[in-house]
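Researcher: Let's try something more involved. This one mixes different molecule types, so please make sure each is placed in the same coordinate frame as the others.
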Amino acid sequence: MQKLRIQGPTRLQGTIPISGAKNAALPVLAACLLADSEVELHNVPAVQDIRTMLRLLEHLGVENERLGDAVILRPTGCANPDEAPYDLVKTMRASVLVLGPLLARRGHARVSLPGGCAIGVRPIDLHLTALEALGAEVTIEHGYVEARGRLRGCRHRFLNPTVGGTENLLMAASMAQGTTVLENCAREPEIIDLARLLTAMGAVIEGAGESTITIEGQDRLGGANHTIIPDRIQDGTYLIGAALTRGDVTVEGARSADLAPLLEKLDEIGAQVDVSKDRIRVRNEGPLKPRGMITEPFPGFPTDLQAQYMTLMTQAEGVSTVSETVFENRFQHVPELVRMGADIRIDGTYARIHGPSELSGTSVMATDLRASACLVLAGLVARGETLVHRIYHLDRGYERMESKLQMLGACVERIN
Ligand code: UD1
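Model: All components are placed in one shared frame. Result:
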């Protein structure tokens, strides 16, 4: 199994380009199931989750061709299964995003239940209740969710904002009969990106990025040409790295509005943040101030940057707190950070970090995607050699992280 070897401490300095957002590309790829002709996507990141989604789409009758950072998707037109099997879904929860489009286009879908994952139980009940409100008949049997029926527009209020649920319903309602009004929707930038693609395919959507979204269902959706937005979580990870290592990092192609809660925090803790049209620069020379943080749905602080922020706070001068309100089990990186010398106490979904701690390199185990990133960051400030094991988690969402860190002057290598 591959690992990352990091020699620290180091200072990140330089400019890097950023790749397309995995979390935007996954629903956009699922939406290609709705198109009756070719969809051309640009800025598609070359990460493991995308390869898994492309395999799933092939299985469901959409073939793909990769040309650099572009992917062309074509419906094969043959009779294809309406089923997302366990083998594909188990490696990636986002597979459940094919449920809405399959059902809307073919009147039937059978998708393996994704189950929980390292960071929490992660049910899909809110997706299913919403599909039922649209007229689907939903049954759960033998570990699969099966949905059938002709979808009709309706008014539905999500009990809580859910990113995947909002995306699934946006796709389903785009081919339902009549008008759908969705309330209490998630407002993440990735949802706006999906709506942009659906609109280019012929859907009529109003309010994406707001709590209430109105969708006029269409009989058919066609091909489109679409560019995926930049990955705000990857951007955020490297910018945190700049503040952490007293470095100076510019991320090209970044969108500051998508990163506002992080940029505000970086400014508060004493880093210098410069924003221009399509680049963000973060510099830090002095000591870091401790600042508390609470994860929340967008436009709050993203849970996907919580672990990385915690690594940063291990170097702040004083006590800071982190409260995780989105997932119930997202502190698995903490014992590993503590093994490296961090002083962190956990009480349920609340953590208290006493800084600054001098971290020292050792072997650490990645437990999930964002936890892996936080351990790599910790390795950059730790004294000596850090070995991050199980980086297949990292490869699910970060495109060649070691190359980008090398471009910034870090001594990082991938070893077998
Ligand atoms: C997406 C992101 C993930 C990010 C998360 C929160 C993708 C592929 N993944 O995940 O990286 O961490 O948003 O920003 O885009 N919930 C329910 N029932 C449901 C659905 C969700 O109880 O039917 C709960 C979840 O357990 C969680 C919360 O709602 O506690 C938010 O989940 P949700 O927004 O749906 O996250 P995902 O779409 O799974």
